[in-house]
Amino acid sequence: MDHTEMIFQLILHGGNARSLAMEAIALAKNKDMAGAKNALAEAGEELSKAHQNQTAFIQKEVSGEKTELSMLLIHAQDHVMNAMTIKDLASEFVEMYGHIHESKGAGV
């Protein structure tokens, strides 16, 4: 995989993870807790793939192959970091909605 393709993989997996995390929030809001947890798990898998690409960049640099810093690479890293943050927040929202739905179901 060449440099540009690796960058686009970061964007792809970061974007997928962000979308799945946002989907998890919507599912939890609509009382589909199983679906929300599944979407969070899928978001985690996408982030894992992005992390593998990041690791490949780091390994290349450690072995002496400099990574060309470009706006596209910065953009890709931004996507991944944003997705990580959104996924963390989505996990909290899913848990919160779970508690809300449980308490409403208990007549509280």
UniProtKB/TrEMBL annotation:
PANTHER family associated with the record: PTS SYSTEM N,N'-DIACETYLCHITOBIOSE-SPECIFIC EIIA COMPONENT
Stated name of the protein: PTS lactose/cellobiose transporter subunit IIA
Keyword terms, alphabetized: Magnesium, Metal-binding, Phosphotransferase system, Sugar transport, Transferase, Transport
Keyword Transport: yes
Cofactor(s), by name: Mg(2+)
InterPro entries registered for this protein in UniProt: PTS_IIA_lac/cel, PTS_IIA_lac/cel_sf
Active site: H75 (tele-phosphohistidine intermediate)
GO BP annotations listed: phosphoenolpyruvate-dependent sugar phosphotransferase system
Superkingdom to which the source organism belongs: Bacteria
UniProt keyword annotation of Transferase present: yes
Residues reported to bind Mg(2+): D78
Cofactor binding summary note: Binds 1 Mg(2+) ion per trimer.
GO MF annotations, alphabetized: metal ion binding; transferase activity
Entry-annotated residues carrying Phosphohistidine: H75
